[in-house]
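**Backbone geometry record:**
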Amino acid sequence: MKTAANSQKRSTRPGRSAALPFGEAEAWRAIGDGWRPLYGSFQKLGVSFEWHDFEAASELDWGRSFHPGSVEICLNLSGTGEVSDGTETANYVPTSAGFYCQGRRPLAARRAAGEHHQFITVEFSPDFLSRQFTESIQHLHPLVAAVIRGDAQSGGVSSASRLNGDQQQLMSSLQRPPVFAAAQEIWYHSKALELASVFFFQPGEQELFCDRQRRLSRDRVDKVITLLKGNLAEPPALEEIGRQVGCSHFYLSRTFSQEMGMTIPQFLRQLRMERAAELLKGGKCNVTEAALEVGYNSLSHFSTAFHQTFGCCPGLYPLATMTQKASHPEK
């Protein structure tokens, strides 16, 4: 998909967007094909899914796309951004998620310049939330409960948390539903409820211990990811990773697989392939240099892993991406 925000000529520090009229399509006009509705209608159905994939040439005022009175979940795959209500700020880093409520006083939101942004948003109207969750209102996050009661005056933001492996896989299936077209309305509706049940409900007292354990597991996984990203060419041994993270490498391996949906070696290979693809696509390295840069001494092993990941050999990857761009011209 060819997506770029090259039509933006200057950085726009958003502050609050109160002076700007709401218009979702207008808000995303600068990124062209980078904004694509997946399913639904905020006005007609009360829920909508949207995919965003673009390069931000300058800082983007993201807040103009928020529907007044809505609650929106953001599943952030890549790129950084933030949403603020003036008191609390949620920072969206790669593979993170959270939600926010657009009240009468608009939220301030921005997407960073010079980054590749990929994220899915799921918007919920107050009517949809009322129909589905009024009977469970005492268990909901205060922001969502306030929207259902009709007293969300200033809106607000939740904290952002790490996307786990299941949620990352869900992002992929949301773009390509695994059901027939006739069943997609039911499928998307069920996914909207699934995401709402994950993000909008608060744990009871008996669940707090489990919640702390899950948070500890996520923190450990984050440390592993940081270690791997910083040492692609010469990653530490699993035993050393466990020592630095502070737990048994056997336990750490099991925890990582549960959180990310893949083993540590599989995730390392994914990181290496993504980095190699960036180097090849940008023309910074030839195939041999890219292989060495990400820790492969065997060119044949590198080529095999690359082909399994991207469906073409590394030498043809720059040409393949150029062909893909040509088939998706900017509007």
About this structure: Residues 1-22, 323-331 have pLDDT under 50 and may be disordered. The domain at 208-325 is CATH 1.10.10.60 (Arc Repressor Mutant, subunit A). The chain has twelve helices and eleven strands. The longest helix spans residues 208-229.
